[in-house]
Amino acid sequence: MEKSRIKNLPLAKELLLLNVLGIASTLLVCLALFSVSYSYLAVQRLKTEAIVNANILAANIAPMLVFNDQKAAKTLVHSFITTPDLAYLSIVNTQNQIFADWGALHKDSQLFSFTHISNQPLTDMSFDHIAVLVPVSLDGELLGAVQLQIGFDAVYRETLQFFLLGLVLTAIAIVTASIILNRLQVRALAPIFELSTVAENVALQRDYSLRSSYISNNELGRLSFHFNQMLAKIEKWENDIKEELNQSKESERCLDILANYDNLTQLPNRHYFHQALATTVGRSIIENQFSALMFIDLDNFKYVNDQFGHEAGDLVLTIISQRLKNILRSTDMPCRLGGDEFAAILPQIADEEAAKILAERLVAGVKQPIIVHGEVMPVGVSIGIACCPLHSDDPKTLLHYADLAMYQAKKAGKNTFCVYSEKK
To answer: Helix or strand or coil: residue 76?
Structure first.
């Protein structure tokens, strides 16, 4: 659980936490070792001091044992009670009798017996005190012994004080190290943060032109260099794909134009016209709207082609196509069905009367003089109108009715329009 929490931290905080934990653990182990060493050295020092003091006392107490002067011995013993943590002090003679003493023995501790006395000091150490036995002799004759018991309370107090002081200093060191490490890590990790920011922006914005600005010869510098190289390759790959897609779309657009638009007039061709007519009729039925279809045929166009040539005929078709677009509404769709035949799909028109008004404007607009190479082209239009759903709600039938109406207009003298009627 703790590991997952650490892994979820930001990188800088995770590294800082791990470094601080490492430093803190090391310092605490060192502090514990120093405290143990300090305690051990303090005990050894206390042991040495106890032996020295016992030897001094032994040298001074020897005459008193010779003359059996207990009063003087007690006075001398009391002069030694200023020794820190002195628990018990006694002088014994060769009969193992206490000649003079002070204090009380530690719990569960025993005095040395006379049989233990030798020419060398003896020590006995436990968890809470140390006992020292030093022989008393004069001119090589053994007179008795000096026994000391000193507690370790002062040693433990000093060790505790040392440990607490070390703990405070360790805490200060950890805080100081944390501040310094934080600043150093932020500086050291800046390239990684930059790479992370660039990668995140690339992912969010899908902009492969972004680059890392970090330059160095170290590992992070090489990482930044290869990261930029990778982005450059992806950017080139993306641009190549975009170019291919654009070319593909352009090809599709060209094919769409070739398939659905007349090359000369740029109007929708017969194929596109049938699709648009079916869509308009279907929408009119579903949305209960009125729409109309105009079948437009040029008058005298064959004469223009024969008299002035196909080039002049093409120019006439282009001019008439432009006039159709200019006169019709923006929602209307003029189409070239082929040759001199045109059509206009009128969606969402108000009624039959509105279709007649548009047809009248078309006839008048096309009748305006068309001059090609200085010659007036004698062309006009005959228009047949069929309405949906008034006359039919079937696209093919509607086109047939508009065609019939166009022939009625031609019979009526050309350059006019006619609305489909079932009456002959």
So the answer is: helix
Per-domain residue ranges of the chain: 2-156, 206-258, 270-419
Give residue 114's Cα distance to chain centre: 83
Instruction: For domain 2-156, give the CATH number.
Output: 3.30.450.20
Rounded-to-integer distance, Cα 192 and Cα 16, Å: 15
Q: Distance between CA 134 and CA 59 in Å, rounded?
A: 10
Helix (H) or strand (E) holding 382: strand 380-388
Domains 2-156 and 270-419 alike in fold? no
DSSP tag of 106: P
Q: Given a cut of 80, is residue 114 above it in pLDDT? A: no
Cα–Cα distance, 130 to 289 (Å, whole number): 117
Tell me which residue of 364, 363, 342, 340 sits closest to 293, measured CA to CA: 342
- 261 DSSP 8-state letter: B
User: Count of residues for the chain?
Assistant: 424
Decide: 43 and 152 in contact? Cβ < 8 Å. yes
Give the Cα separation of 35 and 29 in Å (integer).
10
Separation of alpha carbons 79 and 97, rounded Å: 21
Distance CA 4, CA 187 (A): 26
Q: Which residues are catalytic?
A: 340
* Cβ within 8 Å of residue 283, ≥6 positions away: 289, 347
Q: Write down the pTM of the prediction.
A: 0.48
Ramachandran category for residue 104: left, alpha or beta (phi over 0 → left; psi -120 to 50 → alpha): beta
Look at the block and give the residue holding tokens 């086109």: 399
CA distance 215 to 13: 25
- What's the rounded Cα separation, in Å, for the pair 221 and 309? 75
Q: Shortest CA distance to 261 belongs to which of 359, 338, 146?
A: 338
Residue 101 has pLDDT above 90, yes or no: no
- Amino acid code (one letter) for 8: N
Q: Which residue has the tokens 């003359």?
A: 67
**Which numeric CATH code is attached to 270-419?**
3.30.70.270
**Torsion angle of the four alpha carbons 331, 332, 336, 342, in this order, in degrees rounded to the nearest 10:** -170
328 band by pLDDT with thresholds 50, 70 and 90:
very high
Tokens 């370790």 sit at which residue?
A: 152
- What are the DSSP calls for 182-216, one per residue? HHHHHHHHHHHHHHHHHHHHHHHH--TT-------
The tokens for 318 are 């282009």
Given pLDDT bands bounded at 50, 70 and 90, which one contains residue 1? very low
